[in-house]
Structure formats: C-alpha cells, structure tokens
Amino acid sequence: RGEASVRTLLFAIARNQLNYYFRKLTRDRKRFDYDPTQTSIAAIATTPTQRMAGGEQNLLLLRALRELPIDTQVMIELHYWEQLPVREIAEVMEVPVNTVKTRMFRGRKQLEALMEKLAASPEQLEATHDEFSAWAARLRDELGADSPSDSAVE
Fold first, then answer.
1. Cα within 13 Å of Cα(28), Cβ side
2. Is pLDDT at 150 greater than 60 in this prediction?
3. How far is Cα 30 from Cα 142, in angstroms, rounded to an integer?
4. Which of 16, 143, 19 is nearest to 82 (CA)?
5. 6-144 sits in which CATH class?
C-alpha cells in the first residue's frame, strides 16, 4: 500500500503468523475449524500473554481477554497496549476503519460482560473496571520494564 508505517506492517505480519500458527495447531490436533473472528485463545492453547497475570486484577482481565475471539483480543491489545490508532489497526486487520470501530465497541462490551461473569467479587470487578485505560497503560509499562534494555548491553 505504500503509506503503511513499518510498525503497522510488522503488526500485520505478526497477525498473519498468529493466524497461520493457530490454523496449523488446530489442524494438527484435529480439534475444530479455526476462525479468528470466533475462536478464542482459551479454546486453543496457553500463550505467553499469561505472564502478565500477576495480581487478581491482571488475572481477571487476562481470563476475560482469553475468552474473546482472537481478532477481538488482538484489536483490543493493539489499541490499549500498543497504542495503535484505529486506522493502523484497520490496516493490520485488513478491514475498514468503521469495522474496527464496531468490533472494538462490541469487544469492550464483551470484555465487560466476561469480567462481570468471572469476577470473584463486586470489589474485584470494580477495581479492574475503574480506569481501564490507565490500568492498561500501567500494565504495559510494567511489562516493558521486564524486557532487557539496550543500555544493559555494553
């Protein structure tokens, strides 16, 4: 397309690789047909995303995210963790911008409903639900702190 940033292109490649991996995994296990708009991570396998589950809030969000269809989970993670704008998410997902907006709206509603269902207490739900964007930013920063820095290698 020419106008896509390198970052957007890399996310698109990563998404395609994720879809390829899960198609192969489900085909090899002869479990079911893989459809990223319907299939959730929880239905397929354990992933590295689980490492973000530290506290109860993290665990609640992780469990709810894993129940979402993969494409919905990817969109939400690209938006909240990678801070990609809707236009770039649309390029990564190879769908129109309005489709991303609609799916993000529905995905947040699904995530809310799943967290309500999975929460051990109203307090846990409220703590997780309050300031979701700020909480996602803190979690993103914490996860970023775990990766080795360039200054450590001399």
1. 8
2. no
3. 37
4. 143
5. mainly alpha
Q: If you write DSSP's letter for every residue of 89-128 in order, what string do you get? A: HHHHHTS-HHHHHHHHHHHHHHHHHHHHHH-SSHHHHHHH
Calculate ∠ Cα 93-95-100, nearest 5°. 80
Q: Which amino acid is at 33?
A: D
CB neighbours of 25 closer than 8 A, spacing ≥ 6?
34, 44, 45
Q: Which residue would you say has higher pLDDT here, 9 or 41?
A: 9
> What per-residue confidence (pLDDT) applies to 102?
96
**At residue 139, does pLDDT exceed 50?**
yes
Nearest to 79 by CA among 63, 67, 97, 54: 97
Q: pTM of this prediction? A: 0.54
Q: List the domain boundaries for the chain.
A: 6-144
Side chain identity, residue 37: T
